[in-house]
Request: fold
Amino acid sequence: MDARRALVLSGGGARGAYEAGVLDYLLKELPRRIGGPVRFDLITGASVGAIHACFLAGTAHEGPARADRLAEIWSSMQLGEIFHLSTGEALRIPRRLFGLVRGHGPLRPGRLPPRLHGLLDTAPLERIVLDRIPWRSIRRNVRQGRLTAVSVAATQIATGRVVVFTEHATPERMPWTRDPSILGRAVRLGPHHALASAAIPMLFPAVRVENTYYADGGIRLNTPLAPALRLGATHVLVIALSHGTRIGEDAEQAAGRIESYGNPVFLFGKVLNALLLDHVDADLAHMRVINDILSGGTEAFGESFLEKVNAVVTRHRGQTFRVVEDLVIRPSEDLGRVAAEVLVQQREEGRMSAVLRLLLGAVGVGEQPTEADLLSYLLFDREYTERLIELGRADARAQESALAAFFAD
Reply:
């Protein structure tokens, strides 16, 4: 079977700047090491990863300069321009949280608003997505073979199912799972699909696609590994947005957090981490178990083992099993702690913007936070995003040899 490489992008609001840093290295520096441009056959994304997936698909016909454009988008962000947060708006956040501020009236078929609820106004972010991604180029690049497919995952609020919206070169042959909790849908990708995937629960408004509403794809499928495998990936490169705490650190960190447990904002940040960031290791572990079974079976019973297994599996699953190689790039630092460091530094130097002070007051962040998980999703500010871009570049560069092997034919 020919190699089919997939880029798998996860999500987490402003943490997405880390992905931009990794992509900057992949598109600009790595080609000099491997002697040619980096090419992905499949790109799948959830949450902010869905936005990046669409950007990469829409610019697949361009050169390395597209990485500069993506990094520039992130490094030029200013919180005051992203969130128009007046004192009145900040005071309304707790009331919205408990449903004391009326949003839309009763919903009626044929009169559904394009957005639904949400504690924060995301209109400026949406304009960036609308204006900076060449949406019409996605279909052309797929049809012209620059990539085979691009998909974004969103969570359907009414049913809790994951819907994977896919632009595929041959949609009539698009394989999918029989798992009733995941639905594959061939579409012409547009901004509403990406924005639906990136709608962080409670914080950002749910987005209407056709006649129903969707929220962040990361609620159920943050690391869209399953779509990549279903679309035929033989190699998957995963960019994760969680630090992946080592076992020895857990007890030490837990002891230092006890005082924060009574803060609902602290707990909400940890819940978001569990919902949006922690699926990647479980997905990879499951895939590696399958790899071990297939490799062990082949070693024990010969090359015909996989062929015989697939003869049975195809009838029930609709697709064969195969050994899949993976490579994961993840932050070498905790991005929640990086956010806290940025906040503390700005506060100590008296440079904190009025918008950020209002936001901190609204969500209840203390004077000297050691972790700011919730703010790490919302800190669309260049001081934070530039640190994440540099961290992403450095972490990718540290895996240069592994990346060169991943792209070796």
